[in-house]
Write a structure and sequence with these properties.
single chain, 229 residues, alpha/beta, Spore Coat Polysaccharide Biosynthesis Protein SpsA, Chain A
Length: 229
């Protein structure tokens, strides 16, 4: 069975409600659950009568810390991440999650589409090597087991930014991703979201640059000798 984890911080209620509904539409077919992690929002998030569980952090600690809390709270062994404002396409996402339940793979990712921009984020053929040099896929396309999560050292809660890539690198190094070549949902930069704030807020931009440098050094060390084909 599946636990979908949605981290949220100061997201509009209607955005969170739409994402929760989209995730429930998928995981309920697997007798799964949705876990929403409120990362210390100024106006506490709520999921009234939605069928989702809410985990509330006492202070804003960043998306990596929120994801760690969500995985810890999850009732099931297979975790599917979906960031607030992103959506899954039910039939395509079900095909990916069915593979996870067969336990042929410990971690999978897929293709995503930016419906706002009208663009699909295709995966390059040599992603296995390129992942150590640049992020290759959206976090909301990923699904992984708790064993893979632990093997990768969890998300790096010392970071605020860039650990989507950092986690992806560690999973690739210690476990290995399997690519599911279907478009399983829509993901983009949302106004007011963490990526958007990093573009418009000076302090956030400085922190994001520092976090990217940290992740890049880690990725280079783990990928030493691994080059794109």
């Amino acid at each position: 069975m599946i636990s979908a984890v949605i981290p949220t911080y100061n997201d509009p209620p209607e955005r969170l409600a739409a994402t929760v509904a989209a995730c429930l539409a998928v995981v309920e077919r697997f007798d799964g659950e949705v876990v929403v992690v409120d990362d210390g929002s100024e106006q506490p998030a709520s999921v009234p009568e939605s069928g989702a569980r809410l985990v509330r952090l006492g202070k804003n600690s960043g998306c990596p810390a929120a994801m760690n809390a969500g995985v810890e709270a999850a009732a099931f062994d297979v975790i599917a991440r979906c960031d607030c404002g992103d959506f899954w396409y039910p039939e395509a996402k079900e095909s990916q999650l069915a593979l996870m339940l067969e336990r042929e793979h410990e971690a999978t990712f897929s293709i995503s589409r930016d419906d706002m921009a009208g663009e699909t984020r295709w995966i390059v053929e040599d992603w296995e090597g390129r992942i150590f040099h640049d992020n290759q896929f959206q976090a909301s396309t990923t699904a992984f087991t708790k064993d893979a999560f632990e093997a990768a050292g969890r998300y790096d809660s010392a970071l605020r930014y860039a650990d989507d890539w950092g986690f992806a690198v560690r999973v690739q190094h210690f476990v290995g991703w399997a690519y599911v070549p279907v478009v399983t949902g829509s993901a983009h930069c949302h106004v007011g979201g963490i990526s958007h704030r990093a573009l418009i807020d000076k302090d956030a931009r400085i922190r994001r640059r520092a976090d990217i440098v940290h992740v890049r050094r880690m990725a280079e060390a783990l990928g030493r000798g691994v080059r794109p084909a």
